[in-house]
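Hey everyone, long-time lurker, first post.

I ran two proteins through the pipeline my lab uses and got sequence/structure pairs for each. Pasting them in order. The first:
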Amino acid sequence: GALLFLTRGPLPFAPLWERFFHGHEGLYSVYVHALPEYRLNVSSSSPFHGRQIPSGDVSWGSITLVDAEKRLLANALLDFSNERFVLASESCVPVFNFPTVYEYLVNSAQSYVESYNIDVPQCAGRYNPRMAPDVLEEQWRKGSEWFEMSRDLAADIVADRKYHAIFRKHCTPSCYPDEHYIPTYQHLRHGARNANRTVTWVDWSRGGPHPARFGKATVTPAFVQAIRNNGTRCAYNGKPTTVCYLFARKFAPSALGPLLNMSTTLLEF
């Protein structure tokens, strides 16, 4: 499996991810896309060591975010042992241990790209009629940027030029390609092979353009337990399950201490 980190600079949760990966060498590979001038400073024994890929400048809300995701996928596809691809940011953390996450993804028949269309300005309202006939209004989709996908979908996205050009031209603020390009593309090309949900938990309940951020005061074992089993039921390979989220965001750097404290107990790393 490939873990793709999209970050501007430092990875405050690297110590937690290092514990998560420990002892599972050979089953994962890590790729980091940071700003071009940034150099990641980690010890030579870290899974992040030497894993930065050639990057380009990224600005929030533009097609450059999609380009960075494509770069990460392209680099990860070069390793033929990678069958599953997870996009994470510097504020993401795992909420289950490595064997649980690995089994869940490797045995899944579907990809986890959130994809929906609702009739509100922030979703259906962002559709540009100039995208027709290649993308019709009823084919337009929105979803979380934080995907998990299979190798065939990843390869298709990297190879795609046609839809990328349409989105670059017609999805400009207040349309954000990172929220629409992959959800729409997979709906058009891989619809039945997608679970239409994300495995990365985010709290949007406060409203506004950015999700809630959690620091030291909030991050307790009960909080992590609530993310793991938050009362939602979802489908996994056609059967209902309560294990819907494997990762969570957004966490502030101050959450590292409490998370490391529970990594051996609750998280069982």
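...and the second, right after it:
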Amino acid sequence: MSLSQDIKHKTIELGFDLLGVTDASPIDSGQAEIFARWLKSGFAGRMDYMYRNLQKRLDPARLFENAQSVIVVGLNYTPPEHKPEPPDKATPAGRIADYAQYEDYHSFIKERLYKLADFIKSLAGTGVKSKICVDSVPIAERALAVRAGLGFIGKNHMLINPGLGCRIFLGEIVTELKLSSGGPVAGDCGDCRKCLDACPTGALRADGQFDAGVCINYLTIEYKGQIPPELARKIGDRLFGCDECVAVCPYQKQAPACGNGQFKFYRDRARIDLQEVLDLSADAFEEKFADSPIKRLGLEGLKRNARICLANIKRSS
């Protein structure tokens, strides 16, 4: 069995749904130009980190000397099917994005990528250098995922796999091993514009650009300070994140539920009592969301969102 096949089998054993390999060359000039134009247009909002380490982001070989290949893995996070209870008007609740109903994916994926990297070293030699990447490392992961054959970028600017849809977490191992690479898969959105029509704030623009500065994911998670009133009203009852552009995607309709039984899912986090959020102490917040992506937002950010949700619910009732 070849090294690439061994890696594939280990990846499946670790519970990932997708695996692809590409070389560590820079992303193509067209993708780089799109990203540069996006930054220049100011569509990154206040995410200043997007402007830093730009060359590393576009060229994975800059992460360390002699980087040769990028192993890209995907983990399906489509929640198990469940008919939600109708909202209780007496107890207003805020909606939580699907991905945040699971345990923190950063830790979950990193732990398994380190195991995969150790496995590769055991086969190829302990001196093999590698770099684990899960969000915190500047790398154009979606562009690399496309090049590695995991899917294509849809009009919702998400990676879409024809079989798994667009609820996919990505992780990478940049390695100095020279591995056989895959290639892009066929697929596109065609004339479909359901995600554009569903976007509550127009963040998915008609010209194909993505204005992250008005995206509800950005506003409720990344944005610091008071959210402008005209945007706050469009947040509705979304306490943390937004799934509208994903939920309407035709590729998502037939996607299977997450099959990794080790990836903890908390059904009771789909909707959270807004008054309970406002009453949370710092210690209670830390305990309740210790293993959740929500912890990154912080208690004050979550309370800000809860007040917005309550005002919107009151306004619509």
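Reply from user beta_strand_b:
Welcome! Quick read of the second one: The beta strands are 18-23, 69-76, 93-96, 130-133, 152-153, 159-160, 168-175, 238-240, 271-273. The chain has a mean pLDDT of 93.
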